[in-house]
Write a structure and sequence with these properties.
Blueprint lengths: L1 H9 L3 H19 L3 H49 L6 H28 L9 H10 L2 H52 L7 H79 L5 H10 L12 H7 L15 E5 L6 H21 L8 E6 L10 H15 L4 H14 L8 H14 L4 E6 L7 H12 L4 E7 L4 H6 L5 E3 L5 H17 L9 H12 L3 H11 L6 H9 L7 H13 L3 H16 L6 H9 L12 H14 L4 E8 L4 E8 L2 H8 L13 H19 L15 H7 L3 H13 L5 H4 L8 H16 L1 H13 L7 H10 L13 H28 L8 H4 L11 E5 L16 E6 L5 E8 L2 H7 L5 E3 H6 L5 E8 L5 E9 L2 H11 L1 E3 L8 E4 L3 E3 L5 E4 L2 E7 L6 E7 L25 E3 L5 H7 L3 E7 L5 E8 L5 E8 L2 E10 L5 H4 L1 H4 L6 E4 L6 E5 L2 E5 L9 E5 L6 E3 L5 E6 L4 E6 L2 H4 L26 E2 L11 E3 L7 E8 L5 E6 L9 E5 L2 H5 L2 E6 L8 E7 L5 E2 ...
Parallel strand pairs: 1-4, 1-5, 2-3, 3-4
Antiparallel strand pairs: 6-7, 8-40, 9-10, 10-12, 11-20, 12-13, 14-15, 15-39, 16-17, 17-18, 18-19, 21-22, 22-23, 23-24, 25-26, 26-27, 27-28, 29-30, 30-31, 32-37, 33-34, 34-35, 35-36, 37-38, 38-40, 41-42
Helix pairs in contact: 2-3, 3-4, 3-5, 4-6, 6-7, 7-11, 7-12, 8-10, 11-13, 12-13, 13-14, 16-17, 16-18, 17-18, 18-20, 21-24, 21-25, 25-27, 25-29, 27-30, 27-31, 31-32
Length: 1376
């Protein structure tokens, strides 16, 4: 016990540390609340880890304290047992025995539960991770709180029983003492008999005293028994009351919490379902129609017998292809007030059904649903929009009905296709299920069915809906809906005709009286007579009456003119006459008012999408004949809105809707009725009004306004105001509201300006020639301003769109025929067509190479983009120059028209670059383009002849030039061996191109003096007899691979003769990998050029690796060799065994040590020691990115699946026999053994590397360590970033932005930073080797590339050695 207590005292309590940290956690929690959006995510995870760790640590502390308390109490229980052992079992002894039994049972139960934590049911111990996991998730209190409380309760009862027994023992002892006194008194009494009779009185008083004592004793005993009984009863009542109160509180809290959780879940489900339904803003039209309804009008509809019959009709469902009595079609011509009738019918019907249902508790309230179609608004004119609106109303009405909510949730989660927004079919099915299963009557009111773009689909949906459901439909539309004519019987068609005359009379009477009260009509005018004239002219059309009242309010009319206008109406008029009258009224205004009204009508009628009031203000201002209006002043916008409404004489009104383009509620202009838009867009109205126009004239007007804005209003500079800053959609729209529409849609309007040239040529009276000439001048003006053209392209990408090209291409093709048209003399039409054609060519190119970058950073268009992708219409940047190192292709009738494969390599100092390309024969190219079922061996052998290799050496200077361009033939036998080893036919898929192809190993040394083609080594050496170079070649011997000499023989044992035919399917890629008859190999030069690594993949037996020693004075010899897949690593990675792969190789900077990845394993090889073989270090990803660490003691490799890099130390057995050697550095004549010197370059050792870190000292006195990061983004773009601190990504700068072809072409990167401010940053993009080559792959005409970047424009602070300071970058705009 003493040892245990000492051990307990000396043991640190881990739980205490977690308890002490609670105060710190509270402080951190308060700090997190200052920015909870991001910090709470991290802090929540930390709190969870700390809590789980606390559970595990405190478990053993609490268990130890509990066992110590038990050890303290057990001797007491043992003493109690000894005291009562052998005693007669009276009532108290029995109670003590029972209490002790319960206490010991609790102790054994506690110990049993403790044992179950660490042992299984079969008695064996649990595994440590299982015990740890159970303790983390279930703390000590959750495991033992109940048994410990029970143990404490039983111990308390035992204590109270022992105390009561002690009280009883005291009472009994007192009784015995009193009995002793009684016996002693009797003795004295017997001895006192001899005394005098006087003692009788004493004895009598003594007896009385004893009697009183006995009574007191009995009373005390009774009082103690009663007190004990009352105490027990009170204790039981208190415990019961506390338990009931606690249970009641817990039940109330649980009920409250359950209600809150259910409400939160219901709200969250409702929000999710509403998002899934995605309803349009359907309530605005209904509310607006109710507001426009004149009081006491539109009430005749429900008094009509057909409507009464429709409301009380029965559901027969006898004809599924036609509507029956459940459908009523209310039809009327434009302007007859159908929308107001529908809105009033909706209100009346809903009030009537709710009132009738309130009188019956068993009747469910019917659903009254509505939707008003709107032409020209995509979210309000489709069948799906109607379904979304109807279902949204059902959801809102019954969101608290769990049964209905379950149907919606089930449809969303189980029946949907999984997309975020429900499809039209899913919406229709859900509506049918609801109407069929809800058990309540449903009324659907639809207005403007003629404005629905999918009339037939809508009617078919309604026909399916009426089947097996109680749905009544009230449909409003024009009489020309063919689908309704076919499906609704004549008995169910209600014609409005002149039934609205009474309503129109009420409306006109009130309005005429109001005009007279306002002094707009003479006081003595006969209002009844005037109303009669107007009622005759309206002829049942509410819209005519409304337009006439607006017309009469025009301030340009006198009172007598108004009376004259009314009295002249003696016959019914149509809407066209009303619109003509309004047009004549507008034509009587000032010229500026007529022009404004005409422009507004054009923009409301012919635009590609609706414009907000602010956009329309900018559009009107963007014309050469109108000064620019202020677009920032809200008061000016309000004044503009009022001016438009007044100028258009009541034809135009405003409304507020959600704008999908701007993502917010915006104000729009709209015609007062759809018929107005139809009137102004028709050809017949052109000569009826001064404000009317043709569609062709309108599109010219809109195109010129857009071009004027882009040419003169949009800044001719980066839209982000400076280089390096990107404009945002919201910011650009706030500054230039019209920019979005002008930039995205001017080409669409330009395409609409095409006309039939055959009808125009020779017509000297072409009335619109001046307008078309103005269009050509506007287009020429934009194309001639290169900076404005840049701003337009940038604006498109700011809005997330590629510049529209297809419409411009169509117009360009048509414009070439305009040579026959008499164009302005000051306009060079052929030059304009060439400019448009150049723009059409350039826009797809820039989007292909820069689209993904420009969408994210549109401002980069003003930086390096034009250097990589030049266009004669755009300004050329002076901050960067780009040279693709491409020479002329071999020109021969026997050679292929494209190369099969190409690689390049640059020297460490970035001054020399070698390019090696392979050109097959024309026969091979034609064979790969054909699909044949059978092929002969002789045919394949013939394809190996006529191949040439082309080797170039480039001198990289300000203007690079090709110093060596040597072409030589390849040995046909070597080519045939390679074809036999790897040639196969690949199926085309999403990731790879298909067709015939093969592996073709090539490599170039760092100094560009040596290269390999297949297994032949070529060396460039100085000629001895004359100036120049000679090319020597030698076939590398594969003696170390003697077991597989068949790999290097020209024969083929699979075919009996060369003329034998075999199926082409036998050469399919999957088939050859399945047979395991593919043999792959790779070559890699050491950076110092003194050795060459060979690695092979043999799927049948063993794979080999070898290092050849290269010496200029002798033939290459094998320095070391070894097996790779001794332990069957190929079998562990089936994907490696069924694909063409590329081996990644790295070389150590200080030791003769190399590392490479092969078949999912990392190998290290001290190749200089013949006793050392390739040593497998660890398993890695089959396609990793590897490098040696800066300290040289670790290997860093990427884990693409985990998205991070891992580090593994170089094993001691690999380094124990190595000695430090000179650092390989061909650029330096002096060899060093230290860290990287100033000439050390950065390069990515493998294509597609995510992050490569190197650092160097920049200048002899510089203290700055720089790191280059190269990585590929998910969109396959290559990024180069330079940062000063290699341990932190802060302060990094992008050296240069690169087009997409730099990443997709698998480029290796070599970056040379300048030594002074006058030099350029040099970036070399080398063409990397690929694992498989096919002639069907697209030809890369960009790599290798040599890029020179001004470090000041790149934002790099170049150190000035003489001044000892860093110069701030000078980022200016390109020169105009």
């Amino acid at each position: 016990m003493l040892v245990r207590r000492r051990a307990t005292r000396g043991r640190p309590k881990a739980g205490g540390r977690f308890e002490k940290s609670s105060s710190r956690q509270t402080v951190v929690g308060i700090i997190v609340q200052s920015n909870p959006e991001y910090a709470a995510l991290a802090w929540g995870g930390v709190r969870l880890v700390l809590q789980l760790a606390s559970n595990y640590a405190t478990f053993f502390d609490k268990l130890t304290r509990t066992l110590e308390r038990l050890a303290h109490h057990l001797p007491q229980y043992e003493l109690i047992v000894g005291l009562y052992k052998g005693r007669y079992l009276d009532q108290f002894a029995q109670r003590i025995t029972a209490s002790l039994r319960e206490v010991y049972v609790d102790i054994f139960q506690f110990l049993q539960r403790v044992a179950l934590v660490f042992t299984r049911k079969d008695g064996k111990s649990k595994h440590r991770p299982v015990v740890m996991a159970s303790l983390v998730w279930k703390p000590f209190d959750a495991c033992f709180d109940e048994i410990l409380q029970q143990m404490e309760s039983h111990r308390t009862v035992l204590k109270e029983v022992v105390e009561l027994d002690q009280i009883r023992s005291n009472v009994e002892a007192r009784d015995r003492a009193e009995k002793g006194w009684e016996a002693m008194g009797s003795v004295h009494h017997d001895a006192g008999k001899a005394r005098d009779f006087q003692g009788d009185a004493v004895h009598k008083s003594e007896a009385e005293r004893e009697e009183q004592q006995e009574e007191r004793r009995k009373a005390e005993t009774a009082r103690l028994n009663d007190a004990e009984h009352r105490f027990a009863e009170a204790r039981e009542r208190k415990l019961a009351a506390d338990a009931r109160a606690e249970a009641r509180r817990a039940q109330e809290n649980l009920k409250k919490l359950k209600g809150e959780v259910e409400q939160a879940q219901r709200d969250e489900l409702t929000s999710r379902v509403r998002t899934w339904l995605s309803p349009p803003e359907f309530a605005q039209d209904y509310e607006k129609a109710l507001v426009s309804r004149e009081e006491d009008t539109a009430e005749w509809l429900f008094d009509d017998p057909m409507v009464e019959s429709w409301k009380t009709s029965t559901f027969t469902h006898s004809n599924q292809g036609r509507f029956e009595q459940e459908c009523l079609w209310v039809q009327g011509n434009p302007g007859y007030g159908k929308t107001v009738l529908a809105a009033n019918a909706m209100t009346e019907l809903k009030d009537e059904k709710e009132s009738s249902s309130s009188h019956s508790s068993t009747t469910l309230i019917p659903d009254v649903l509505y939707f008003f179609f709107r032409s020209g608004i995509s979210t309000m004119s489709s069948n799906a929009a109607a379904h979304r609106a109807l279902l949204a109303q059902i959801l809102q009405t019954h969101r608290k009905d769990n049964e209905i909510m379950d149907k919606f949730v089930f449809a969303m989660e189980e029946m949907s296709s999984g997309q975020i927004i429900a499809s039209e079919e899913e919406l229709g099915e859900l509506l049918r299920v609801y109407t069929k299963c809800s058990g309540r009557e449903c009324f659907i009111i639809l207005d403007g069915i003629d404005e629905c773009t999918e009339n037939d689909n809508l009617i078919q949906s309604l026909l399916r809906l009426k089947q097996d459901s109680e749905v009544r439909m009230l449909l409003f539309s024009r009489p020309n809906v063919a689908a309704l004519i076919r499906t609704v019987s004549n008995e169910q068609q209600l014609l409005i005709a002149r039934k609205t005359s009474a309503d129109i009379e009420i409306y006109l009477k009130r309005k005429v009286e109001l005009l007279q009260d306002e002094g707009l009509l003479p006081a003595n005018a006969n209002t009844n007579q005037l109303v009669g004239h107007l009622l005759t002219g309206a002829d049942g059309m509410f819209l005519w009456a409304r337009l006439m009242v607006s017309y009469l309010k025009c301030p340009a009319l006198t009172r007598s003119q108004r009376v004259e206008v009314i009295e002249n109406v003696i016959l019914p008029e149509g809407l066209e006459a009303m619109y003509d009258r309004i047009g004549d009224l507008i034509g009587q205004g000032y010229q500026i008012e007529r022009n404004l009204a005409r422009k507004i009508i054009i923009w409301l009628t012919f635009t590609k999408r609706r414009l907000t009031t602010r956009e329309l203000q900018g559009a009107i201002a963007s014309s050469a004949d109108r000064p620019k209006a202020s677009q920032d002043d809200e008061e000016d916008l309000e004044e503009f809105t009022k001016m438009v409404v007044m100028t258009c004489a009541g034809l135009v009104e405003t409304e507020r809707l959600h704008s999908p383009v701007h993502g917010q509620i915006s104000t729009f202009f709209r015609f007062i009725h759809l018929s107005a838009s139809e009137y102004f867009s028709s050809q017949e109205c052109r000569f009826k009004s001064a404000i009317s126009t043709t569609a062709w004239d309108a599109h010219i007007e809109i195109t010129c306004s857009c071009l004027y804005f882009l040419t003169f209003a949009l800044p001719a500079q980066p839209l982000g105001e400076r280089l390096g800053k990107n404009a945002t959609k919201d910011g650009l729209s706030r500054a230039f509201p019209f920019c979005n529409y002008a930039a995205l849609h001017w080409t669409g309007h330009l395409e609409a300006t095409r006309f039939d040239l055959s009808r125009t040529v020779g017509n000297s009276a072409l009335s619109t020639k001046d307008q078309f000439d103005r269009l050509l001048h506007s287009l020429s003006g934009l194309l001639s301003k290169s900076f404005n053209l840049m701003s337009w392209i940038e604006a498109n990408y700011v809005y997330g769109k590629a510049p529209p090209c297809e419409q411009l291409k169509q117009w360009s093709r048509w414009a070439k025929s305009l040579k026959e048209l008499d164009t302005p003399q000051d306009l060079d039409m052929p030059s304009l067509c060439d400019d448009v054609a150049e723009l059409v060519r350039y826009l797809p190119e820039i989007h292909e190479y820069w689209g993904s970058k420009l969408v994210k950073t549109p401002g980069c268009l003003w930086e390096e983009v034009t250097a990589f992708t030049p266009c004669r219409l755009l300004p050329q940047t002076a901050s960067a120059t780009v040279h693709s190192l491409i020479t002329e292709d071999p020109n021969s009738d026997y050679m292929s028209t494209q190369y099969l494969c190409k690689v390049s390599e640059s020297s460490s100092n970035g001054r020399i670059l070698g390019v090696l390309s392979i050109w097959p024969s024309r026969d091979y190219q034609m064979f790969t383009q054909q699909k044949k079922k059978h092929v002969s061996l002789r045919k394949l052998r013939d394809l190996s002849t006529g191949w040439i290799a082309k080797y170039e050496i480039w001198a990289l200077a300000t203007e690079p030039w090709c110093t060596v361009d040597h072409r030589f033939s390849l040995d046909a036998t070597e080519v045939w061996i390679q074809m036999k080893q790897t040639m196969c036919q690949r199926e085309e898929n999403f990731w790879e191109t298909g067709g015939w192809g093969m592996q073709f190993p090539m490599a170039i040394s760092k100094d560009a003096r040596m290269f390999t083609v297949l297994r032949t080594l070529y060396s460039l050496k100085p000629a001895t007899s004359k100036p120049g170079l000679i090319l020597e070649s030698s076939v590398l011997g594969m003696d170390f691979d003697g077991l597989k000499t068949s790999h290097w023989s020209a024969g083929d044992s699979r075919v009996s003769s060369d003329d034998a035919l075999f199926k082409s399917s036998q050469l399919e890629e999957d088939e050859r990998f399945e047979r395991r008859d593919l043999y792959l190999y790779w070559f890699f030069f050491h950076p110092d050029g003194c050795s060459l690594l060979f690695a092979s993949q043999d799927l049948q037996t063993r794979s080999m690796a070898a290092v050849f020693k290269l010496d200029t004075t002798s033939q290459p010899s094998v320095l070391n060799s070894g097996e790779l897949n001794i332990k069957g690593s190929l079998l562990r990675h089936p994907s490696w065994c069924r694909n063409f792969n590329q081996v990644q190789v790295i070389y150590h900077a200080a030791y003769p040590l190399l590392g490479f990845s092969f078949a999912g394993r990392l190998y290290l090889w001290a190749f200089n020691n013949p006793a050392e073989k390739p040593f497998p270090v660890c398993d890695i990803h089959p396609d990793p990115k590897i490098q040696f660490s800066d300290c040289g003691s670790d290997v860093i490799f990427s884990e693409p699946l985990e998205g991070r890099a891992r580090r593994t130390p170089i094993p001691h057995r690999v380094l124990q026999f190595q000695q430090m050697v000179a650092v390989w550095n061909p650029a330096s004549t002096e060899l060093t053994t230290g860290s990287w010197n100033k000439d050390t370059h950065w390069r990515s050792p493998s294509p597609g590397s995510r992050e490569i870190q190197r650092h160097r000292s920049w200048g002899s006195n510089s203290r700055t360590n720089l790191t280059l990061d190269t990585f590929h983004s998910p969109d396959n773009n290559l990024h180069l970033r330079l940062r000063q601190n290699r341990h932190s990504p802060q302060g990094s700068r992008e050296i240069s932005k690169l087009p997409s072809w730099a990443g997709s072409g698998m480029a290796n990167i070599n970056v040379q930073l300048p030594e002074s401010r006058d030099e350029m940053v040099k970036i070399i993009l080398n063409k990397a080797a690929k694992p498989w080559y096919g002639m069907s792959e697209p030809v890369d005409n960009h790599l290798p590339a040599f890029i020179q970047r001004d470090p000041r424009s790149a934002g790099l602070g170049i150190e000035d050695r003489e001044m000892g300071r860093a110069e701030a970058p000078d980022r200016t705009l390109p020169n105009r």
